[in-house]
């Protein structure tokens, strides 16, 4: 008995010593990085880690609004020329001075990274010419008016000129080329396990609170929660929805949530006259595709009880959606709200469209891509069946799902879209604009919705450099595409959550990033 | 004899060829890797570029040929996701895997053999019955559940051991090992115990069965009759003979 007590005391003493590193923050991330090269693989976990070491010309705040970064200011000189004033006196981690040449070299490197599975060239392609009139001024030229250039610059992590010109992806993984101007300096990387960082004392922005930061990758969600409860990590991201309620009651932990830029929506084949998965009630293929009728699309939207999905399936970790983005984002409509469920109105609309007895359809959904995706699709299938549209669900892994959806094999499916620009032109162009490689629109428009009026609104908006005017035009496009034509059926916006040990505070970010340099002691 | 060897070799080659075909084309029909790799925001130009960079734009037969050529020269290709050689990615994880396997085996042998011996020599005592009942739990409880419980008790409740991850490593003859010192061993302990549980039960039961069987054999009776001390009968004569099946099983289990 005595021995047992002694062992306990010893263990407690050891634990106290272990927890005394108040200057260190250990974070449990949900997904391992695939490479440290900030231009190799455009993947959120990679970008998240890179943002600690590498800085960008333009920053985004927690609500995705643009803020000055390495560029103190930017303005459009005319429709196709942008001038950026760079910050003075910024030093690289190796002590050399940051200049416009570094930016030019970075932009030249981005399209030429060998073997890149997902490159950042999408963001640099609009830039046709780049010049530096002096050391701290940049002039960017675009072929056509490109109002989102500052938003695109958020995705470009700046590296020093000599590294941009010589370093290979392996040099970043080995740490040799990990020189940035960001709030943290690189110290150690163990693939699939951890990244260790040390504070950059010469950082130009607000001084990060933690001297060292250890980003640990714990892919298993329950293990991540256990690590937080055990005190192995002080913060975790992507808290599983099933554990939120419990963690909120837990006295050792605080939970921080933020509605994200990811919309979960239903896409409908509104193009083909005969659609592969639409049948009459007896299972025979329908001659006419009912999804081409806007009344049917509206009936689908009205039959879904979004509040029930949010509270029951998502455990509050979502917000019912009535348009493409939550309404604090630029370019959203002030008129569109999430419709309340109304089965009678849905049935009436179906009858008006000529389907008083409904029809049957198959809903396709990924089962490992979005939070609770398959369960949400199941609930939607039940709501629709109740309204008279017999809905069968087929869920599959996302790699199969997306390659089949891309080949237009579905009639009706659930998917999601994260607007990484932080405004509505991203989902409008990708999901609703008519599919056309020439305009670059519709790359994820797998229902092939097409409306000339909506296209015209989007395309004119995108030639307008003036933010206020453009956003009004985009809002009008949303009103027409969703309110009038129901191009897609918005279901909900995902809410992302972080959990921290009591005494720490983090403002949840709409872009879902986990930045150790924004974690501070609670006041 | 030569004909026999040649025939067997030909059969092996055929089996290998069919397996490689099945695996390669099976993976291919399941889905398009480009869809998972590229950022969903990417446009058609970027998708085409990614496919070309990864060699996925070539006809599938040509892709298979590239894979075969690589396989014959011992080159397993480049991991799409990491952009590094696949072998390198696999070998990197090897030390951690081996460490866990050896630690688990060490635990199960050092505990399993003595416990099994005891249970075999005194089958009627309540201690032996407890050991045997425990071993039934050991191999019927699912490992993922035991793992969760171990984490809950030792990491979350008591806070004695870390819940996940690999500890700091030390360079030993070019290998990055973590179990050679306490800080690193702490991390390996919980997973190793969990892995050891099944093996431990197996060894206990095997040892007990062997002891029970061998104790009745003539050579043991004869050794006793000769007046040898009990410790020598068990430690030298009995143990030596029961080790034969044990070593075989330990070898098989280690590879698992």
Secondary-structure content class of chain A? alpha+beta
Specify the CATH homologous superfamily of the largest domain in chain A: Dipeptide-binding Protein, Domain 3
Stretches of chain A where pLDDT is under 50 for at least 5 consecutive residues are 6-21
- Tally of DSSP helical segments of chain B: 10
Using only C-alpha atoms, the radius of gyration of chain B works out to: 26 Å
Specify the overall morphology of chain A.
Answer: globular
How confident overall, as mean pLDDT of chain A?
91
Major sheet size, sense and barrel closure of chain B: 2 strands, antiparallel
Task: Describe the protein.
Chain A has 17 helices and 20 strands. Chain A has helices at 2-18, 44-53, 100-109, 121-124, 149-153, 161-166, 169-173, 221-230, 241-249, 294-303, 306-313, 343-352, 373-386, 398-406, 425-432, 452-461, 467-484, and strands at 24-29, 58-60, 66-68, 71-78, 81-86, 127-134, 137-142, 184-190, 194-199, 212-217, 235-237, 253-268, 278-279, 318-320, 360-366, 390-396, 412-418, 488-501, 504-505, 520-521. In chain A, strands 1, 8, 9, 10, 11, 12, 14, 17 and 18 form a nine-stranded mixed β-sheet that branches. Chain A has a four-stranded antiparallel β-sheet with strand order 4-5-7-6, covered by helices on one side. In chain A, strands 13-15-16 form a three-stranded mixed β-sheet. In chain A, helix 10 (294-303) runs antiparallel to helix 12 and helix 16 (452-461) runs antiparallel to helix 17. The model of chain A is unreliable at 6-21 (pLDDT under 50). In chain B, strand 1 (170-172) and strand 2 form a beta hairpin. The radius of gyration of chain B is 26 Å and the shape is extended. In chain B, helix 5 (86-121) crosses helix 8 and helix 6 crosses helix 8 (182-215). Chain B has helices spanning 2-30, 33-37, 44-53, 60-72, 86-121, 126-140, 143-157, 182-215, 218-225, 230-255; strands at 170-172, 175-177.
């Amino acid at each position: 008995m005595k021995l047992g007590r002694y062992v306990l005391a010893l263990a407690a003493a050891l634990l106290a010593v272990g927890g005394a590193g108040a200057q260190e923050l250990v974070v449990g991330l949900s997904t391992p990085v695939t490479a440290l090269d900030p231009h190799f693989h455009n993947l959120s976990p990679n970008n998240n880690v890179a943002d600690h070491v590498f800085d960008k010309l333009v920053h985004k705040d927690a609500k995705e609004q643009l803020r000055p970064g390495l560029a103190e200011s930017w303005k459009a000189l005319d429709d196709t020329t942008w001038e950026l004033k760079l910050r003075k006196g910024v030093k690289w981690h190796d002590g050399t001075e940051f200049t416009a040449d570094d930016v030019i070299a970075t932009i030249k490197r981005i399209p030429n990274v060998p073997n890149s599975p997902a490159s950042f060239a999408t963001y640099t392609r609009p830039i046709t010419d780049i010049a530096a009139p002096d050391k701290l001024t940049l002039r960017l030229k675009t072929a056509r008016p490109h109002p989102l250039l500052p938003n695109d610059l958020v995705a470009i992590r700046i590296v020093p000129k000599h590294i941009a010109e010589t370093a290979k992806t392996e040099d970043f993984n080995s740490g040799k080329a990990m020189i940035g101007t960001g709030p943290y300096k690189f110290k150690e990387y163990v693939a699939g396990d951890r990244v260790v960082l040390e504070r950059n004392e010469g950082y130009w922005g607000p001084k990060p609170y933690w001297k060292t930061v250890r980003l640990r990758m714990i892919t298993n969600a329950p293990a991540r929660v256990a690590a937080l409860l055990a005190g192995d990590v002080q913060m975790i991201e992507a808290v599983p929805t099933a554990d939120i309620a419990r963690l909120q009651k837990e006295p050792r932990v605080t939970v921080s949530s933020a509605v994200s830029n990811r919309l979960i929506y239903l896409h409908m084949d509104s193009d083909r006259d005969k659609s592969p998965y639409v049948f009459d009630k007896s299972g025979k293929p329908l001659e006419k595709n009912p999804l081409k009728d806007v009344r049917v699309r509206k009936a689908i939207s009205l039959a879904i009880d979004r509040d029930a999905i949010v509270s029951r399936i998502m455990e509050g970790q979502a917000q019912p959606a009535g348009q493409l983005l939550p309404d604090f984002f630029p370019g959203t409509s002030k008129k569109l709200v999430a419709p309340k469920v109304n089965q009678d109105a849905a049935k009436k609309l179906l009858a008006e469209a000529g389907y008083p007895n409904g029809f049957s359809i198959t809903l396709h959904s990924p089962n490992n891509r979005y939070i609770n995706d398959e369960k949400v699709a199941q609930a939607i299938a039940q709501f629709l069946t109740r309204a008279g549209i017999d809905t069968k669900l087929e869920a599959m892994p996302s790699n199969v799902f997306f390659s089949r959806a891309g080949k237009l094999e579905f009639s009706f499916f659930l998917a999601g879209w994260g607007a990484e620009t932080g405004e509505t032109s991203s989902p409008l162009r990708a999901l609703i604009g008519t599919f056309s490689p020439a305009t670059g629109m519709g790359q994820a428009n797998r229902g092939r919705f097409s409306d000339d009026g909506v296209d015209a609104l989007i395309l004119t908006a995108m030639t307008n450099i003036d933010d206020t005017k453009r956003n009004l035009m985009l809002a009008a496009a949303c009103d027409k595409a969703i309110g009038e034509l129901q191009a897609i059926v918005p279901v909900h916006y995902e809410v992302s959550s972080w959990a921290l040990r009591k005494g720490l505070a983090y403002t949840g970010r709409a872009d879902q990033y986990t930045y150790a340099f924004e974690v501070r002691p609670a006041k | 004899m030569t004909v026999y060897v040649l025939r067997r070799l030909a059969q092996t080659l055929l089996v290998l060829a069919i397996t490689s075909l099945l695996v390669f084309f099976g993976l291919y029909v399941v889905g398009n890797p480009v869809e998972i790799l590229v950022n969903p925001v990417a446009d058609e130009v970027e998708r085409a570029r990614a496919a070309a960079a990864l060699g996925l734009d070539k006809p599938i037969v040509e892709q298979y040929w590239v894979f075969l050529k690589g396989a014959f020269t011992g080159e397993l290709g480049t991991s799409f996701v990491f952009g590094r050689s696949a072998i390198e990615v696999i070998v990197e994880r090897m030390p951690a895997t081996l460490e866990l396997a050896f630690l688990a085996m060490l635990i199960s042998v050092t505990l399993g053999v003595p416990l099994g011996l005891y249970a075999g020599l005194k089958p009627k005592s309540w201690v032996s019955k407890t050991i045997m009942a425990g071993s039934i739990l050991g191999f019927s409880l699912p490992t993922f559940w035991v793992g969760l419980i171990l984490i809950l008790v030792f990491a979350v409740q008591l806070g004695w051991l870390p819940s996940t991850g690999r500890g700091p490593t030390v360079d030993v003859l070019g290998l990055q090992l973590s179990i050679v010192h306490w800080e690193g061993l702490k991390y390996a302990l919980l997973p190793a115990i969990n892995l050891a549980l099944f093996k431990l039960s197996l060894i206990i039961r095997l040892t007990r069965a062997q002891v029970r069987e061998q104790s009745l054999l003539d050579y043991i009776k004869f050794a006793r009759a000769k007046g040898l001390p009990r410790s020598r009968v068990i430690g030298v004569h009995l143990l030596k003979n029961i080790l034969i099946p044990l070593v075989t099983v330990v070898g098989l289990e280690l590879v698992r």
